[in-house]
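Milestone M4 deliverable, item 7.
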Amino acid sequence: MKNENYAEISPETESNQKYDTIIIGSGAGGLSAAICLARAGQRVLVLEQHDVPGGWCHSFYLNGYRFTPGVHYVGLLEKGESTSDLYEGLGIANDMVFFRMNPKAYEHCWIGEQRIDMPAGFDNVHEALSERFPKEKKRLKKYLTLIKNVTYQLQLIPKMKGFWDHITIPFRTKHMGKYALFSLKRVINWHIKDPLLQKVLNIQFGDHGLPPGKASFPLHAAVMGHYSSGGYYPMGGGGAMVKAMTNAVKKHGGEVRTSCGVKRILVEGDKKKSAIGVELHTGEQILAKRVISNADPGKTYLDLIGKENISAKLQRRLAKTTYSCTSLMLFVTVDMDVRAAGLDSGNIWMMDDMDMDDLYVKMNTLDVAEGDTFPGMFISCTTLKDPIGFDGRYHTIEAITYINHESFNKFKDESDPRSAEYLEFKERLTQKMINTLEKALPGVSEKIVQKELGTPITNEYYINATNGCVYGTEKSFRQIGPFAYKAETEIKNLYMCGASVLSHGVAGAGYSGVETAAKILKCKQWDLLKPDDTQNIRIYEAEDSSEYPEWMLQKIQVKKDRLAAGVGGFDH
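Output delivered:
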């Protein structure tokens, strides 16, 4: 069988090898790796198939109103916390501004008819929930302490440096080790007895996409720990974070090219394969000393490398690999005073009052169009999270629910223009999403001035994610931690980074890129993220404009003035 990815490299072509590293995909992981490598003096090229960089972090506009599909909040941004350390170490902290979401309720838990708020800070969570569930006060304290200990121990592992550190790992991570093989459901059932309180404490399962019965306890503890000091939203949406990262890549001499889809990774060698570059969909071949794939394992190995170039062992592993849930994302602009209707900068997690594992099954039914509303929905009003984006009249809302990707299988092979059946199916789902949103915002249906629905097919088209998955590989027991895909691959000079490698989420993927760069540079993660007192993230309150600097107030006023002058907005 002919090996299509094999490339004959002539001496003349080899001398034109312009790059040390080519990175496929410009998500948070790919860009973090690019910054680290370019800063170390490497010639770096980042290739992005979409017309804008960023992967899940990118922002897009509908009639001038901004949406970000993959960034809804970020945690641990205070000085000395891990996400802040990441951005300071990458040298991009000064270029980003964040708004602190409502600290009294950065998460609103709407479970059936119950309304319970989650404040920032474990002590505040304990106080607020103890007041609501007084019989659970002692048990809640013990459980939150366990969450804190496991979170701390998880963050400790990458910082282990010397021989003694590694010898003492079992003692210094005893809580994590004790509960590592237990599901979230088992651990919380041991500690918390009130079913409603269990649901409140589990509601962030949407941030990893696995129900309590399938999620590992340390995984969920890590998510809770990540948001332990509250949630933050970037000024300018995810696109502003991407801009800071791409500017840093360019500042250090790297290149970022958009609308450059990679057709295949070029390899050479017989028994021991080696990555030597890429071929674009245009036919152009670009050579490099090494390649990093920011795509998921299926896309990397099966689509870009090809089965014929990987071992039987890896093929068997890929066949068993499962991917995270996929989603429907409703993007709407509304002519409505949403704050008067009860919204603020906090997220709303809205779900039917039922067992969360049963809820997950119900959400993942194949008949996704059945019924008038969805059993669960995440709601984010970005113009309240980012006041800079509000023009004084129109608000932008992103509403998300998880679904089974197989419900779209019959439309997967369609190309533009889409069939009438697909468009009708999408319209039915859009209406079902709006009906669900109505439960949180009564009357919103009559106030929508524009709407768009993202589907699993949308996710796969723009993000190039297997099945349109939102978190890379499924974060189940056999696919996380020591069982996750590694940065180094069986193919020489081919590396991976992103949500399927180290961790998911904006910060997790970012750290994965640093880890991959460290493998290439033969150093440790902390060597690439050294403290820098000149770097500081600016944080302002989304709910209180009294401390906004003059430049920020001017930006807000300019947006309002433009609308008043008839520039932007909608004609009615």
